[in-house]
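cron nightly-structures :: item 1 of 1
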Amino acid sequence: MDLPCGTFKENYAQDMAVIHTKLQWLILFIFLVFLFTLPFYVGDRWLSIITVIGITVITVHGLNILTGYCGQISLGHPAFMAVGAYTSALLCANLGWSYWAALPCAALAAGIVGILFGLPSLKVKGFYLIMTTLAAQFIIIWVILQLRNLTGGVDGLAAAKPKIAGMTLSSKQVWFYLVMVITCLATFFARNLVRTKVGRVFIAIRDNDLAAEVMGVNLFYYKLQAFFIGCMFAGVAGSLLVHYVGIASPEQFTLMDSVWYLGMLIVGGMGSTIGAIFGTVFLRLLDELIVVLSPALASAFPVIAVQAAASLGLIAHALVIILFLIFEPRGLAHRWEITKKYFRLWPFSY
């Protein structure tokens, strides 16, 4: 990482630090103050949007660990979210568990199921691994639909709101704080994981798994570990989503979501923790912009059918992903680093 002129690392603790300068600490403090004071000056609609963004960030962090860092492309991430969601909802509804006990169980269940579908990763990779994880999407959702006596099938399953000291967490403000705290913890964990031995092994497997194996890396063990950790993130996100909405339904975990999660990584930048955040925020805010623009476009151009205006979201998402693949394949995170270096070296940025 490039540092401002005059800033030096004098020991290993400084070299390993995530935040290096006082200015960076100040910027982080200001951002956190701004984030956690949002409920005081934004309405419930924007709180709901930001809460959903936070839940999506947790999911994309897991996918980034699995795909961005370890190179194991997955198209079944919403299905692993569904495992965590239904595990949490069932434990709370049928066994009367507290949500705070069900949440780690949801993460663990999603991680274990992720290991099962990650078993073929030692023998197959690339397109064939994509097909394996795609099978997970269909198999898990099929199982949920078939166990209708347990899961409610297509009708869904009620998910109780969490409680603290006998008080039900039902307001949007309380849910915002809950999700933001868990999102910050997930981001902290994801950022530090890739700086450990495990993270460096993931990167080695992604870059060249044969060379990593020659150097003594146990590919089978670490690939399964990547599936376990990535799917645990998905389980946490799925649990938060269904308890926030109040119901667990198969329609919440579709194949199209798998595509958009990968799109968020492409837009933000694969293999970058901050890129996962940038991509999620960018595409989620694009959704809201399209919601605002679609009626205006339909009224301004009557020749455009209402259905065409409604499908503008799919068109815009696909177009954005294509443009990023062509002009900025390393995503917004790379552009952010270039911008920082420009201002750090200004006026001699050439």
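cron nightly-structures :: done
The chain has a mean pLDDT of 86.
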